[in-house]
UniProtKB/TrEMBL annotation, chain A:
<dbReference type="Pfam" id="PF01799">
    <property type="entry name" value="Fer2_2"/>
</dbReference>
<dbReference type="InterPro" id="IPR006058">
    <property type="entry name" value="2Fe2S_fd_BS"/>
</dbReference>
<dbReference type="InterPro" id="IPR036010">
    <property type="entry name" value="2Fe-2S_ferredoxin-like_sf"/>
</dbReference>
<dbReference type="InterPro" id="IPR036884">
    <property type="entry name" value="2Fe-2S-bd_dom_sf"/>
</dbReference>
<keyword id="KW-0411">Iron-sulfur</keyword>
<keyword id="KW-0479">Metal-binding</keyword>
<keyword id="KW-0408">Iron</keyword>
<dbReference type="InterPro" id="IPR001041">
    <property type="entry name" value="2Fe-2S_ferredoxin-type"/>
</dbReference>
<dbReference type="InterPro" id="IPR051452">
    <property type="entry name" value="Diverse_Oxidoreductases"/>
</dbReference>
From TrEMBL, chain B:
<dbReference type="InterPro" id="IPR016169">
    <property type="entry name" value="FAD-bd_PCMH_sub2"/>
</dbReference>
<dbReference type="Pfam" id="PF03450">
    <property type="entry name" value="CO_deh_flav_C"/>
</dbReference>
<protein>
    <submittedName>
        <fullName>Xanthine dehydrogenase family protein subunit M</fullName>
    </submittedName>
</protein>
<dbReference type="InterPro" id="IPR005107">
    <property type="entry name" value="CO_DH_flav_C"/>
</dbReference>
<dbReference type="InterPro" id="IPR036683">
    <property type="entry name" value="CO_DH_flav_C_dom_sf"/>
</dbReference>
<dbReference type="InterPro" id="IPR002346">
    <property type="entry name" value="Mopterin_DH_FAD-bd"/>
</dbReference>
<dbReference type="InterPro" id="IPR016166">
    <property type="entry name" value="FAD-bd_PCMH"/>
</dbReference>
<keyword id="KW-0274">FAD</keyword>
<dbReference type="InterPro" id="IPR036318">
    <property type="entry name" value="FAD-bd_PCMH-like_sf"/>
</dbReference>
Length: 159, 288
């Protein structure tokens, strides 16, 4: 089967790749571009471990075709820290031990960063609903929710 | 699998009409990709509709109605400043589909054409009297939404035909709509029963009504008896009892691990009551 030639940007960098029409964006990121931050938990849109942004919109990369990335802006967990400088959410997740095995963490960070961009002052209920599609089998969620709410408060104060 | 991304409906329809084997249209992909990856439905031809002009537009028509592009996502509908004021039931039904991530992609068109009896947006679309433009090799026709589903996983669209736009009628004065579903969890689950009610008031009296049920039959049900139970009433207890009875009587549900026949039949009545009250209150609050 002939491969498709796709031109896109990932975390601000111009990227080109060849992919099979059936390949998902998640497979492309992990297997062709070496960006293994996004994880495959389910492959069916249920767990959110593969969360990325597509033109700024939070999506499951397991439910996007690589071919659909043509001409788009992709944002992944690899673009979150600025060099060695962790994003406030990343720092707070470490401080609160809002992760254990860490499989869900890249997806949850990408998802919550998107939330705080849209709504800098979310309620606990809003954070919980926003993350309904991000499953975590380790933490019991509470530490994640606390970390997000505290980061939001800190970021509001800092701005 | 061949991936196509046509730039207009003529090309999209031509590709679909000439395609051999299984053809799918790709809107948000939240059904297509799940089925592709699970080897349930691996298309030979995949027609991505998102390159076609205007498919992301939400437009108010000159008569006050709305035209929704076939690739408009649930999130885009929720974020629209005016659509949800006119049609809160349609927007809340679509907003119930999946998580934040799914909302970023899933469309009403895909929800309708996937053909799930439990699709959340579909009862709301039927209750408010939406129609769709169906474009095929012979041109475009308008079809009421309730004529599209033909059974679980099936639509009445012929080979080479696709939906090219969704149409919501003008809201007009003193109208309200609402959608409720029952799921065992609070988020991320498939409706055991869904119910949408749309009505218009004359004073405090219901002048017109439409009631639609999802997940209680092979396709969405438009229940005329349930609507009749409301018309001419002020939604008193007697009217609500009659509504619930008519809604339950219309159910032909399946029995599965998610809900027994008895449970689904009962819940249809309960949801109809509650949705009718919400629609009524909304209609009263918009009355001028
Ligand atoms: C995790 C998860 C949770 C979900 N939760 C819900 C839920 O709570 N409620 C619910 O109802 N659904 C749910 N779904 C199912 C799905 O998200 C919805 O049905 C969604 O609306 C499908 O829209 P789409 O744009 O992604 O469709 P796609 O997957 O792009 O397409 C679906 C079908 O529609 C056809 N189609 C698309 N566009 C056209 C067109 N223009 N003309 C003709 N045919 C067309 C395609 O050929 C395909 O058969 C969920 C899915 C996932 C993965
Ligand atoms: S891997 Fe994409 S949602 Fe689970
Ligand atoms: S930390 Fe293990 S799944 Fe969340």
């Amino acid at each position: 089967m002939s491969k498709m030639h796709i031109t896109t940007t990932v975390n601000g960098d111009d990227v080109e790749f060849l992919c099979d029409p059936r390949e998902t964006l998640l497979d492309v990121l992990r297997d062709r571009l070496g960006l293994t931050g996004a994880k495959e938990g389910c492959g069916t849109g249920d767990c959110g471990a593969c969360s990325v942004t597509l033109d700024g919109r939070l999506v499951c990369s397991c439910l996007v075709l690589g071919a659909e990335a043509e001409g788009k802006r992709i944002g992944t967990i690899e673009g979150m820290a600025k060099g060695e400088d962790l994003h406030p959410l990343q720092k707070k997740f470490i401080e609160h031990a809002a992760l254990q095995c860490g499989i869900c963490t890249p997806g949850i960070l990408v998802a919550t960063e998107a939330l705080l961009k849209k709504n800098p002052d979310p309620s606990e209920t809003e954070v919980r609903y926003w993350l309904a599609g991000n499953l975590c089998r380790c933490t019991g969620y509470d530490k994640i929710i606390r970390a997000v709410l505290e980061t939001a408060a800190d970021m509001r104060e800092a701005s | 699998m061949q991936y196509h991304k046509p730039e207009n409906f003529e090309d999209a329809v031509a590709i679909a009409a000439q395609a051999q084997g299984l053809t799918r249209f790709l809107a948000g992909g939240t059904d297509v990709l799940v089925q592709l990856r699970a080897d349930i439905a691996v298309p030979d031809t995949l027609v991505d509709v998102k390159g076609i002009g205007g498919v992301k537009d939400i437009t108010r028509e000159s008569d006050g109605g709305w035209r929704i592009g076939i690739a408009v996502s649930g999130a885009e509908m929720t974020e629209h400043p005016d659509l949800g004021r006119d049609w809160p039931g349609v927007v809340e039904a679509t907003d119930l589909i999946g998580s934040t991530q799914i909302q970023g992609r899933a469309t009403m068109t895909g929800n309708l054409c996937n053909g799930s009896p439990a699709a959340d947006a579909v009862p709301a679309m039927v209750a408010v009297g939406m129609s769709v433009s169906v474009t095929g090799p012979d041109g475009t026709r308008r079809v009421p939404v309730e004529e599209i589903p033909a059974g679980p996983g099936r639509t009445s669209l012929a080979k080479g035909e696709m939906i090219s736009a969704l149409h919501i009628p003008p809201r007009g004065a003193a109208g309200g709509d609402a959608y409720l579903r029952f799921i065992p969890r609070t988020e991320m689950d498939i409706a055991v029963v869904g119910c949408a009610v749309n009505l218009r008031l004359d004073g405090d009296t219901v002048a017109e009504a439409r009631v639609a049920l999802g997940a209680v039959a092979p396709t969405v049900l438009l229940v005329a008896d349930a609507a009749d139970a409301l018309v001419g009433t002020t939604l008193d207890d007697k009217a609500l009892d009659a509504l619930a009875e008519a809604a339950s009587a219309a159910c032909k549900p399946i029995d599965d691990k998610r809900g027994t026949v008895k449970f689904r039949t009962h819940v249809a009545g309960v949801l109809a009551r509650r949705a009718a009250k919400i629609a009524y209150d909304r209609a009263r609050s918009t009355r001028t």
